[in-house]
Amino acid sequence: MSTRQLRRALPVVAMALLLVTAGCSLPGGGDGTPTAGSPEPTTGTTTPSATPTTNGTPGDVSIAGVEDGRVVDASALAAAHEEALAADSMETRLVQDASIIVPTGPNSSQVANATIVQQVVAEAGGQPYRYRLEQRGIGFTAQVWGNDSVEVTLPSQAGETQPPRVGEPQDRSLITSTNAIGTYLDRGNYTVTGTTTEGNRTLVTLEADELTVENDTDLFVRGASDFENYRSTVVVSEDGVVRSLEITAEYTLRGERRDLSITYEVLRQGNVSFEQPEWARTALASTTATEEPVGTATPA
Predict the structure, then answer these.
(1) Which of 37, 297, 18, 11 has its CA nearest to residue 158?
(2) Strand 140-146 to strand 151-157: parallel, antiparallel, or no bridges (unpaired)?
(3) 36-61 pLDDT per residue, tens
(4) What are the Cα distances from residue 39, in Å, to 55, 85, 98, 281?
(5) Where does this protein have compositionally biased stretches of type Low complexity (predicted)?
(6) Which of 163, 219, 237, 290 falls 20 to 30 Å from 63 in CA-CA distance?
(7) CA dist., res. 139 & res. 19, Å (int)
């Protein structure tokens, strides 16, 4: 089956469930270059990075979930990330390159190379928010705007825009990528390898080269197994914000070796603004009080 046929074979709802790999639930989308419909902040600039300066030893750090130079509570660190990141407006991006299994019919599937790109902008507190979710190689995108009471999704499949969908808003933990970050941190044996100073900010580097699980079936990618050459580097500020995360590994999927690459980055924090898109405003205006919200493009 060709890529074009594959795109036509997958309904929008099924595509939404395929946009993340095993164990991770995230909104997001877009790439670093503003594109039509992407979450484009209207003010604010990326904070320039100062030249890093070595500052201290692994035993000197004080971050939630980290003790004696090791990550001992991934959930605590992820919770600190959510709280500190949501304290101000922000923009984040997650990119995942992997081979995944996608359905081609009721009882058939195939392996496809997919790049999942998720980009989020949100005001302080995580609402309102806007994000773009894109799965390159399959041909699905979703533009989303939401606030504390409603969410509007504009899906597109194989270049064809579908009708907007109105539903429930996302939880703050999804907007801040807390669930995924907690999962990633929990799967690696992370230790503190050093600290640096950029301006008046102290950053802590965590590294892992081994997994914490014995059974790696379905790890990171549904249907994957036999992970090797796992490497991960995470940079965390002292308030707990995971500023960047990188994971690489090799795995087996349907008898063949595949490559995995995951990156996450806080692009900006503070002075990020954006507007409600016209398509969302129009969709909400046409929704009556008697209509029940339909499913959105919320990843599984």
Answers:
(1) 11
(2) antiparallel
(3) 334 654 444 344 343 344 455 555 66
(4) 36, 18, 24, 15
(5) 33-59
(6) 219
(7) 11
Instruction: Please give the Cα distance from 200 to 45 (Å, whole number).
Output: 18
For the segment 154-210, what is each residue's pLDDT rounded down to a tens digit? 998 878 888 999 999 999 999 999 999 999 999 999 999 999 988 888 999 999 999
Which one, of 175, 182, 59, lies nearest residue 120 by Cα? Answer: 175
Q: Which residue has the tokens 């304290």?
A: 87
Residues with Cβ within 8 Å of residue 86, at least 6 apart in sequence: 122, 124, 125, 126, 172, 175, 176
| CB contact at 8 A, 135 and 114 | yes
Secondary structure (DSSP) of the chain: --HHHHHHHS-HHHHHHTSS-TT--------SS--TTS---SB--PPPPPPPEE---GGG---TTEETTEE--HHHHHHHHHHHHTTS-EEEEEEEEEEEEEEEETTEEEEEEEEEEEEEEE-GGG-SEEEEEEEETTTEEEEEEE-SS-EEEEEEETTEEPPPEEEPPPPHHHHTTHHHHHHHHHHB--EEEEEEEETTEEEEEEEESSBS-S--TTSSSTT-EEEEEEEEEEEEETTS-EEEEEEEEEEEETTEEEEEEEEEEEEEESS-B----HHHHHHHHH--TTSPPPP-----
What count of residues does the chain have? Answer: 300
Both structure tokens of 293: 């919200």
Placement of tokens 């992407």 in the chain = 38
Residues near 295 by beta carbon (within 8 Å), at least 6 away in sequence: 13, 16, 165, 167
- Token duo for residue 175: 């907007």
